[in-house]
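To the structural biology subgroup,

Please find below the input and predicted structure for Putative pterin-4-alpha-carbinolamine dehydratase, which we are adding to the shared reference set this quarter. The sequence is reproduced verbatim from the submission form. If anyone notices a discrepancy with their own records, reply to this email rather than editing the shared folder directly, so we keep one authoritative version.
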Amino acid sequence: MATPQRLTDPEIQTALGELSGWSLQGNKLHRQFKFGNFNQAFGFMTRLALVAETLNHHPEWSNVYNRVTIDLTTHDAGGITELDVKFATKANSFAD
Ligand SMILES: C[C@H](O)[C@H](O)[C@H]1CNC2=NC(N)=NC(=O)C2=N1
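Predicted structure (tokenized):
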């Protein structure tokens, strides 16, 4: 699959307007999710891992107990693309 184009700054701002909880941090889409316990946090990561494989688009993320921190960028494009927005949208749909 061809690498998508980097989004422009206005396009990123528009996407952020529709992505509740996400912000721009270090030129990446960033959000921390908090769950009731580790089981819920890890279940969320497991579901999202399957999405990552399907999209061939992989997050930078970490987990501490009930928290999952995610940073999204498209390494092949050197910035944020529609794939990052798609992944963030999916993450929100699993969590909110
Ligand atoms: C070869 C492989 O398709 C690429 O390395 C994919 C894999 N997953 C990826 N994930 C992310 N976040 N960015 C990429 O550029 C990327 N590229």
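Summary notes: The longest helix spans residues 38-55. The CA atoms of residues 41 and 66 lie 5 Å apart.

Regards,
Lab coordination
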